[in-house]
Amino acid sequence: MKRHIFATAAILLASFATARAETVLNIGMAAADIGQIDPHRATTTQDKPVVSWIFNGLVRFKPGSASLETLEPDLATSWDKSADGKTWIFHLRSGVKFHGDWGEMTAEDVVYSLKRAADGKTSAFAPDYAVVESIEAVDPVTVKIVLKKPIPALLGLVANYHGGNIVSKKAAEALGADFRTKPVGTGPFQIVEYKSNESLTLISNPNYFRGKPKIDKIVYRFIPADASRDLAFSSGELDIVYGRQDQRWVERFSKEPGTVVEVVKPSELATLYLNEGMKPLDDKRVRQAIAYAIDRPQIAGFKGAATAVPAVSVVPTGYLGTDEKAKLFPNDIAKAKALLTEAGYPNGVAIKVIQTSLPTMLNSMQIVQSQLKKAGIDLQFEVVDHQSFHSQIRKDLSGAVYYSAARFPVADVYLRQFFHSDSIVGKPTAVTNFSHCAVADAEIDAAAIEGDAAKQKELWKTAQAKIIEDVCAVPLFEQLQVWARKTTVDYGYTFEGAIHLGPVITEATTKK
Amino acid sequence: MTAAAPPAPQPRRRLSVLGKALRNVGLVLGAVIVVAMIAAALGAPWIAPYDPDAQDVLLVLGTPDSVHWFGTDAFGRDVLSRVLWGARVSLYVGFVATAAGVVIGTVIGVISGYYGGIVDRLVVAATDVLLSFPQLIMGLLLVAVLGASLTNLIIAIAVTAVPAFIRMARGSTLAMRERDFVDACRSLGFSDFRIMFVHVLPNILDELVVMASLWLASAIRTESTLAFIGLSVPPPTATWGGIVREGFDNLLDGPWLALFPSLAILAVMIGLNMIGDGLRDASDPRAPQ
């Protein structure tokens, strides 16, 4: 005990001695650990905000926004496109430095990064770039991208999101596998320390091209237990906290003095993907029975009107191409039971489900489990930790997969990753097609290269209808993002949307 | 002592243990608590007021009242019903795992102690290794490796109990082996099996029962702890540790969620320890009459 006191005193003295206290932003995240912070592989909620602090794209989503309409210059200062929409020239900002001693960012890094993002071996987003014919450096500050066909949102592919993040070529090549936890970018913050299952520490990038950040250090802490994280925030240990996506949480923390709760876009669409490659789900009638047994408004009700709404389609609402009035199955238990009987399961069916122990997801799935039970469908959970969950569902081990996701706000991306046969889990080109869905490939492919916006929308609409009719998946509800901060923190912008699922900490962010 | 009636002293002593036991207030009280809990668990299908898994969106985190005595949880499920049903899993795991540990441990321990030699030395070495792991760590390891299910949970907890009972049974058998009545049995030509399990075993049973009652408490606690960290029977099945865990996630919105199952665990712990202490006092020949 005595030793403990001495140690504490010594640390206190030392911290006084270093004069001006540094501004440290403590952020609490609902995860046990980081997944991947290699920007071209980071797909989970806990990874994405970090990526947004470290990297830039050629263009960026305006901080605080999740809308394609707000794209603004980032590493590129301007761009031109050819009349046929296939050739794009980007003019880069000069004098931008990578973190540490990794030198200046040039067209070569941009070409390397985009090619890396397009390569399935180094990127989780390679299919997004299949439409790219060539990428080349015209000179150190000019990049030319040629497309096979014009696409709806090319700027999305070069934005500070997923594959569009620009990495240091030298660093990525030198660090190899270590790049996963020590990525090097041009953004306002750089990684200094990673403690597995504990925290990630970032310090400000003094050479950031928009100016040195006012925050000196970010400590990103992994606190998976909701109650512990909430207590850490209430006690002032955390300045910013990943909020619980539930009504009571929002109500309670909104009342806490000195706290601002922000409910922001994009919504993540929670969907139950049904594995058509497994018995008894290979029978369409069983899948239809599940669709009829789901009560969407009730699930949204449990989640609370402040943060959740029933799903409208198999693509999240508000995306370019979403069918906002898709014909989803209504809740009808009698019909569900009749379909099961017809399929030869009068006594119901049991379905093995790999399920994460992450409370938010496990709780939602328990509601689904309870609803399906009424129709005689028994979801048998095998509860595993969140990382095992992600790896096992990608090995095609689960009968049904509960997955909640937001993607780039164009229907093509969501449809392609979750419902195109190229994306079926287990295939070399796999993304997240957990259901083995293959009924809408033709429409998805045709829409991607359709030049006429109205025809393109029609194709996307047909694709959604086919997927819903075949019950590849049952969309459940859409969940907005919830974050809370102390009033001492000012992001430097209005926080209305977070394409990165968390607040972007910029050079202008301050803490009093 | 003649060779004719070797096991004669046993019945009289056992009767007096029972007599002493009944006069021990703590033991009787402990037994009442535990029996009541077992009755509640067995009777859960009839006495639980609601379906423990039935969700109600309109009753999320309801405070305890006359309709839901223990309140409702984050899914609007009746906590009282879940605690009652949870008792079934928690007590079942505790009893079956302890029983398995006692039977396996005792058989190995008696054989090892009775025969001695190389087998005994190997058993002792293995036991020492296993006992060097704390019970919870061992259980955690096994469940993590085997996967969380009812059977695996029982296996894991039983495995943690086995070495303790081996050591106990072996030690007692070693002492009994030198006693005159064992020699007498041998001279009568009884088989080793008969001597071990018909004559030696009844004489070490008192100690085993005392220890079993204490281990039972420990097994139930281990199950609850494993459930608390998410390594137990998967949802929606209620277990005490699982309910505490879910309650913990909503500690600020509904403290009663964690409180009631915790009290149930506490009551069983106290009851079983009172029984264990009482039995030990009653079976201790040096204890005051």
TrEMBL record, chain A:
Record's GO cellular component terms: ATP-binding cassette (ABC) transporter complex; outer membrane-bounded periplasmic space
- List all membrane-crossing ranges: none
UniProt keywords (A-Z) are: Signal, Transport
Q: Which residues form the Solute-binding protein family domain?
A: 71-422
Q: Which residues form the signal peptide?
A: 1-21
Report the InterPro entries cross-referenced here: Peptide/Ni-bd, SBP_5, SBP_5_dom
Under the heading Pfam families, the entry gives: SBP_bac_5
GO MF annotations in UniProt? peptide transmembrane transporter activity
Give any single GO term for biological process.
peptide transport
Subcellular localization(s) per the UniProt record: Periplasm
Q: Which CDD domains match?
A: PBP2_NikA_DppA_OppA_like_1 (cd08508)
Family in the record = Belongs to the bacterial solute-binding protein 5 family.
Name of the protein described by the UniProt record:
Polyamine ABC transporter substrate-binding protein
Q: Which organism is it from?
A: Siculibacillus lacustris
Automatic annotation (TrEMBL), chain B:
List, alphabetically, the Pfam families matched: BPD_transp_1, OppC_N
**CDD domains given for it?**
TM_PBP2
Q: Which GO terms describe its biological process?
A: transmembrane transport
Keyword Membrane in the entry? The reply is yes
Membrane topology summary: Multi-pass membrane protein
Question: For this UniProt entry, which segments traverse the membrane?
Answer: 21-48, 89-115, 196-217, 256-276
Q: Which GO terms describe its cellular component?
A: plasma membrane
Q: Which UniProt keywords apply?
A: Cell membrane, Membrane, Transmembrane, Transmembrane helix, Transport
Q: ABC transmembrane type-1 domain: which residues?
A: 87-276
Under the heading PANTHER family, the entry gives: OLIGOPEPTIDE TRANSPORT SYSTEM PERMEASE PROTEIN APPC, PEPTIDE ABC TRANSPORTER PERMEASE PROTEIN
Q: Which family is this protein grouped under?
A: Belongs to the binding-protein-dependent transport system permease family.
The protein's name in its UniProt record: ABC transporter permease
